[in-house]
Amino acid sequence: MTNMHTISVPSDGTSAQGLFYQVHGPTLQSANDTVGSSLPALVLIHGLFGNSDNLSVIRRAFEHERIVISIDLPNHGKSLRTELFSFDDCASHITQLLRELAAPLQIASYVLVGHSLGGKVSMLVAKHAAELISKLVIMDIAPIEYSARHHNVFNGLNNVDLSLISSRSEAKTQLAEYVQDPGTQAFLLKSLFQDANGQWQWRFNLPLIVRDYALLSAWPLTGLCYAGPTLFIKGAESDYILPKHQATIVEQFPNASAKIVQAGHWLHAQKPQVVNALITKFLRGE
Which Gene3D superfamilies does this entry report, sorted A to Z (predicted)? Predict the structure, then answer.
């Protein structure tokens, strides 16, 4: 991780909009070095139940050559908690952050890389701030409304008694009563932590996510969303992007291309080298 303290924007910080973010990039050799880069900055936006660390395998692949900004979505990680889920609000918060960072970091444009829920938010940012976005990478999500698919996860998370557990292993046992997949267990438990008082907490706003699940499963747009170059990366073993979604994708993203990775929904974690190679080629225009 590179310290950006030669400028007024810290490497870790919270925006005026309440978003927690981290800035990484090439090492600065002196105070006279250019902070920004001729290459667009990469913005990484995680999915549901995640945080800014979830896409670190992508960040590490690119931070040596360009600025990379990792963001905690609202109601996730260290970002603000809201009273209602809203795609427009999420996109607005991120757009404002990108505008805040552009001048001090000398960033001319951004490439958004979003996974799952973060992919949907990235699409909206691109629509509302197309002048900031040079390219868009969407990982395993389509611009559609999804039917409910997280009931077991909700049941498992609610089954973890945060007031009584004394260890992460106890939480795993309680979670496993409803969530049997070891990978999903491990992903969710990454967001379990002890606060300053020693009380176990989730790093995501579980009550709001459960209550507003229908809102975050929806998709608010029809017609053209973003005309710039867009790469959709699908997990072959995932059903989040299906052939029946192709017409909608082309309608909303007419300059879209697609690649398939032999992995599930968390394709960046299962096949990081493949995903990073696809992103690299896309950034180069190949």
Answer: alpha/beta hydrolase
Query: How confident is the model at residue 16, as a pLDDT?
Result: 62
Quickly count: other Cβ atoms within 10 Å of residue 48's Cβ.
19
- Report the residue count for the chain: 286
Give which of 230, 228, 240 is closest to 267, Cα–Cα. Answer: 240
How many domains are there within the chain? 2
Q: Among 116, 134, 191, 238, which one carries the catalytic annotation?
A: 116
Is 5 marked active-site? no
Active site residue 265: yes
What is the number of H-type helices and E-type strands within the chain? 11, 10
Which is catalytic among the residues 24, 115, 265, 268? 265
The position carrying tokens 């557990």 is: 165
Q: What is the greatest pairwise CA distance in the chain? A: 57
250 and 128 part of one domain: yes
CB 152 within 8 A of CB 244: no
- The phi, psi pair for 21, rounded to 5°, reads -145, 160
